[in-house]
Design goal:
39% helix, six-stranded mixed beta sheet, 17 strands, alpha/beta
Length: 452
């Protein structure tokens, strides 16, 4: 079997535990695309082969049946064919593969799945363990191996310090101190890169794009856990965002501009107010110039902010249209279309055309928005105009400083400003602007690097 040295190390430990009936539990962290799934499939083929006559059952659980469990099943089918078992292995009940008397069972660990009653007497595999509910595992999956003292292995990449994988890892490290038996295996991207130069090139490009401490790069490639919550940006990162270019009031010839619009509620009792430290949310528009170097992510220069509190939406319409079409001629506008923002976004799209795109905040969409914003800051692709003493600049800076991050299961992030500390209108408008830039009409930069 063609396995890399680090994969072989894991496989040997697992088979030693199975054959010697030690019943150990292992945790395996391999950088994303480093061969974790191939390792698992090869182990499954070998177990089916070894127990083809004697019989035995292994179980593999994944966070979801579709697509993760199905992908694992199809991978094992392919490997069985590769090793000459085409036409010999059989599928049963849509979730079991059998080779002779040996069986490999695939189950979903989704919280709604019904899996009670299965028993693993050879191996229990937990795929993407960081995404599996701990109570579900403890009550329904762990007993499948406990009754037979079967070996267990948790595969995945790290996330925060509260995941099933991280808890298993910490227990394994404590047990290693006591008896010297290695139970935790960790292979960050540098280890994988030793055996795959193309992989090294790809990960280096990801590091440039995301930044070394981006949550996804930190967890999926460096295999370093995140705190459950904390500041979204450090003070150094906030300072880095402040550029040296001047604030503008209208577009410059040849420049490409995008906008992000965060919609607030309306108040019939208030006139237009420029945002200072209000108790109400504001509708905020962030305008940025976009420069995209060839084959690279776009860079943004925030050049203007607009903000209103309590403004009736029908009174805002003509101002927003004028800003988008006349003042800046934006090539792309991303508008908050969640709840009360939907009619505003629809009106703007009708008035300004396809350049205006709707954005609905969900747990998943907001998470991606946050990751994109962090990547833009980490890679120094986002600059705001120099401090001009304005209330808009002060509020923008304050929200960046106060912004918090909260890392959630399934590798998602929530970002916000605690209501007790202020608002996050400028923050959300900025994140929408970053997203808008990714879809904007590119303008290839020529000459040297721009000085901000």
């Amino acid at each position: 079997m063609e396995l890399r040295p680090y994969q072989q190390e894991v496989a040997r430990a697992i088979f030693d535990s199975i054959l010697q009936k030690k019943g150990l539990t292992f945790s395996v962290e391999i950088a994303r695309q480093g061969g974790k799934n191939e390792l698992s499939a090869h182990i499954e083929v070998l177990l089916l082969t070894m127990f083809i006559a004697k019989g035995g059952t292994s179980i593999k659980c994944s966070p979801t049946f579709k697509p993760q469990t199905l992908i694992s099943m199809n991978r094992l089918k392919d490997r069985l064919d590769d090793f000459g078992y085409d036409g010999i292995w059989q599928a049963e009940f849509g979730y079991i593969l059998r080779l002779g008397a040996a069986r490999q069972v695939f189950l979903s660990a989704d919280e709604s799945s019904n899996v009670v009653g299965h028993t693993a007497d050879l191996l229990l595999e937990v795929d993407e363990s960081q995404d599996i509910n701990q109570d579900k595992y403890s009550k329904e999956f762990r007993p499948m191996a406990s009754s037979t003292n079967a070996t267990s292995v948790h595969y995945g990449t790290t996330w925060d310090d509260g995941t099933l994988l991280e808890q298993t890892k910490q227990l394994n490290l404590e047990l290693e101190k006591q008896d010297g038996i290695k139970r935790h295996f960790r292979y960050p991207w540098e280890e994988v890169a030793k055996y795959n130069p193309g992989y090294a090139t790809f990960v280096e490009s990801e590091r440039q794009r995301l930044g070394d401490d981006h949550p996804l790069f930190r967890t999926q490639y460096r295999l370093l856990p995140l705190p459950a919550s904390g500041r979204l940006f450090s003070r150094a990162q906030v300072t880095q965002v402040i550029g040296s270019h001047s604030r503008l009031r209208s577009r410059q010839p040849g420049a490409i501009y995008v906008a992000g619009i965060d919609i607030a509620g309306q108040d019939e009792q208030l006139d237009e107010i420029i945002l200072t430290r209000p108790q109400r949310d504001a509708t905020v528009v962030t305008i940025s110039e976009v420069v995209r170097n060839e084959n690279k992510e776009p860079s943004l220069k925030v050049v203007e902010h607009y903000a209103w509190i309590g403004k009736l939406h029908h009174e805002l319409y003509p101002q927003l249209v004028a800003i988008i079409k006349n003042t800046w001629n934006c090539s792309r506008v991303l508008c908050d279309a969640t709840g009360i923002g939907e009619p505003v976004a629809s009106f703007l799209q009708k008035s300004c055309g396809a350049r205006v795109q709707h954005f609905k905040f969900t747990q998943l969409s907001k998470s991606q928005l946050g990751f994109d914003l962090i990547a833009a800051v980490n890679s120094n692709r986002l600059k705001c105009y120099a401090g001009d003493g304005s209330r808009e600049f002060a509020e923008f800076l304050l929200e960046l400083e106060k912004a918090k991050s909260q890392y959630r299961p399934n590798q998602t992030i929530n970002f916000f400003v605690d209501p007790s500390e202020g608002h996050d209108d400028y923050l959300m408008s900025l994140a929408l602007c970053v997203k808008a830039a990714q879809d904007s009409t590119p303008r290839v930069a020529t000459g040297g690097q721009r000085n901000d």
